[in-house]
Amino acid sequence: MFILLEIATIIAPLFVMAGIGFVWGRSGRPFNTNTIGGLVVNFAVPCLIFSTLTRLQVSISDFATAAGIFSIAVALNIFFSTLLLRISRIEIGAFLPTTVFANNGNMGLPLCFFAFGEKGLALGISMFVVSATANFFLGISFASRRLVLRETVLAPHIYVVLAALYFLFIGVDPPSWLSNTTRILGGMSIPLMLIALGVSLARLEVRKVFQSLYLGSFRIGFGFCAGLVLAWAFDLSAAARGVLILQCAMPSAVLNYIIAARFGRKEDEVAGVVVASTILSLATLPIIIYVAIHGFT
Amino acid sequence: MVQFSQLAAIMLPVYIMIAIGFFWTRSNRTLDTDLIATLVNKIGLPCLIIAIFSRIEININETQKFVLASILVVLIGGVISAILVHLFKFFSSSYLPVMTFSLTGSLGLPLSLLSFGEKGLAYGLVFFTVTTIGTYRGGGATAAGNLSFDKLSREPVTWSIIVAVFLIWPGFSLPKWIIDTTWLLGAIAIPLQLLVTGSFLGRIESKFHYRTVIVSIVQLFVGFILGILVAELFHLSMTARAILILQATIPVIILNYIFSIIFKCESTDVAEMDYVSTIISALALPLILAWLINNG
Predict the structure, then answer these.
(1) Is A186 within 8 Å of B187 (Cβ atoms)?
(2) Statement: residue B136 has pLDDT above 70
(3) CB neighbours (10 Å) of residue A292?
(4) Does A37 touch chain B (CB under 8 A)?
(5) pLDDT tens digits along A282-293
(6) So what's the ipTM on this one?
(7) What's the gap in Å between the CA of B111 and the closest CA on chain A?
(8) What are the start-end ranges of the H helices in A40-108?
(9) Which of A233, B27, B54, B256 is the most buried (most CB within 10 A)?
(10) Contacts of A191 in chain B (CB under 8 A)
(11) Domain B4-294 is of which CATH architecture?
């Protein structure tokens, strides 16, 4: 009973915020995605990254360990996803990103925060940075069929991470005007991301139900296993292990749909995978959160 | 003495966020003000009110005194502004680009939070609520010809205030997940309001008339003195006193519009008044804050 309550407390804020967005989207009220998306990507998320990393909850080695292990998880994902797609004769170029890249920002960050507090958020962000960079770079490269570095190099979060690492490295707190500004602006990111997630889910439709469920369950299932194996192999601390498992087992990222739509690569079917995996995660989340916090005991 | 870095820690975040909104709009990117207004008014502010009053311990007597003091400031301030506006034969305009958010919200709340912490924010919210209800009812009455409680009861802010009143009583608290959720959602209110304020400044091409500048400065002074007097009258505690003076100094911009209707005066436009008030208060507030921190 207590465990159920604990898990419900972690998931409820997420559901309420995404639910607000979902109801908003379904009610047909206008929701200007450019405004919200622009603010989130350019200001809110970079500020959240800077402010969380510099609040000295993590050391440089914590950051590097989390980011490094998560990169291995992404690599494993790419390898096995390629195998799966090839065996199932599904177009790799269009669908590989959907099974590899998870919703580490929208959904992963609030969960890490609710389950493991500030420290969890900092570790979750270390992984999110890897995932977002790789998602931009590989996602756009796959969709446009050539290596595109422009978007990756222009993304603000890379520079913000460097700035945060600089302060961590010299061991000085950033000046309080900077930490105040980034804390306030960063505070917008989780609620706005979740509301926007709800709106997009309300607007997307599932096409090819079977394929969507198939790829969606692979995303969550394989990610979960990869997270477990890596957490076991690297002998991580409790919080780091939990955050790794959570972040690896997130549903497919909405960014995959945005990139697919921009390059016109089967965006309807990609949307299907995103929605299907998110719906699946409604069922899998309680289990994943339980394992992330308590292990298998 | 107040140190420069201390003041910078309070003012720079406000200036930076206004600047972001300003340049975002000037570079012709979209900032959907209606959407942001809905997010702030229907979700952000109500959640912020519930979250802050769940988190802090606040004295009931002190709060009651503060509410009465705020009402007094708003009433007297309203009358004085009316006289001022009449004296200088201000404005009427057929169109209504009144700022989306009042300055007691967009400037007052972040300054209350940054200078006096969460307790400061709580008092700042109380004052903001009093001005909002005051001007909302005043404004609605002028436009529709009668007072509308019906409309007020449909605003989420009204309900959040009722919840907050319960929260002030000791022994009443909300479940943790509700506090978590409202805390996170409430965090959008302050930055979004500042961005929209910046965007407003970026959109309006306004000329400065010396009259507008004078009235703005006088309003600021009158508010400041009024705040000090009322704070003395009610023997407010340190934080409450500082926030009352700070918020009283910030011009209640929507009055510009309301009184221009009431007195059917004519001349330039309300947007200019709003524009000038915003800039002058943004420039004057560091001085007032420095004074408040020194005399705190």
Answers:
(1) no
(2) no
(3) 30
(4) no
(5) 889 999 999 998
(6) 0.87
(7) 11
(8) 45-54, 60-87, 92-100
(9) B256
(10) 184-185, 187-188
(11) Up-down Bundle (1.20)
Is A36's CB within 8 Å of B114's CB? no
pLDDT in tens, A12-44: 999 999 999 999 999 988 888 878 888 888 899
Is B185 close to A34, i.e. CB distance below 8 A? no
CA distance A226 to A236: 14
Q: Which residues from chain B sit within 8 angstroms of residue A110, using beta carbons?
A: 184
Measured between beta carbons, the chain B residues lying within 8 angstroms of A13 are 177, 180-181, 184
Distance CA A64, CA B287 (A): 44
A17 with B185: Cβ contact below 8 A: yes
Terminal Cα distance for chain B, rounded: 11
Question: In chain B, what are the domain boundaries?
Answer: 4-294
What's the domain range around A111?
Answer: 2-19+31-294
Question: Helices B238-249 and B60-87, interaxial angle, to 10°?
Answer: 20
Answer whether A267's CB lies under 8 Å from A209's CB. Answer: no
Q: A62 in a domain, yes or no?
A: yes
Task: Report the domain count for chain A.
Answer: 1
Task: Answer yes or no: is A24 within a domain.
Answer: no
Using the beta-carbon criterion (under 8 Å), do A110 and B114 form an inter-chain contact?
A: no
- CATH number for position A11: 1.20.1530.20
Contacts of A191 (CB under 8 A, 6+ apart): A17, B184, B185, B187, B188
Is B185 in Cβ contact with A188 (below 8 Å)?
Answer: no
Model confidence at B207, pLDDT cuts 50, 70, 90, reads low
